[in-house]
From TrEMBL:
InterPro entries according to UniProt: Diphthine_MTase
Source organism, top-level taxon: Eukaryota
Organism: Parasponia andersonii
Pathway entry: Protein modification
Entry keyword annotation includes Secreted: no
Entry GO MF terms: diphthine methylesterase activity
GO cellular component: cytoplasm
UniProt lineage: Eukaryota, Viridiplantae, Streptophyta, Embryophyta, Tracheophyta
SUPFAM superfamilies linked: Nucleoporin domain
Keyword Repeat belongs to the record: yes
Name the UniProt record assigns to this protein: WD40/YVTN repeat-like-containing domain containing protein
Annotated GO biological process: protein histidyl modification to diphthamide
Record key words, sorted: Repeat, WD repeat
Length: 86
């Protein structure tokens, strides 16, 4: 189930916080839609946001008291880099 939805300022990427503790990144290409889902937290993911200044960065927050930042440079197939901060 989708708990939170955010999109970057250019509206080419959407980040979705899911109730299964995962984040889904959807990239809207010229002729295709690419989706990647990754385990993000240990509890429900309640918030997502894109960085307004650096639109390749996204952030997630959860009931596990962790804040993750995601570097979306490159294609979604390459993977998402995440950094946890306590």
């Amino acid at each position: 189930m989708c708990l939170y939805l955010g999109w970057n300022p250019s509206a080419t990427d959407i980040i979705v916080g899911l109730s299964n503790d995962s984040v889904a990144i959807t990239s809207l290409g010229e002729s295709q839609l690419e989706v990647e889902q990754e385990k993000a937290h240990n509890f429900k993911l309640w918030t997502t946001s894109f960085d307004i200044q650096q639109t390749h960065l996204a952030y997630t927050g959860s009931e596990d008291y962790k804040f993750n930042s995601w570097n979306l440079h490159g294609s979604p197939q390459v993977g998402i880099s995440k950094f946890q901060h306590l």
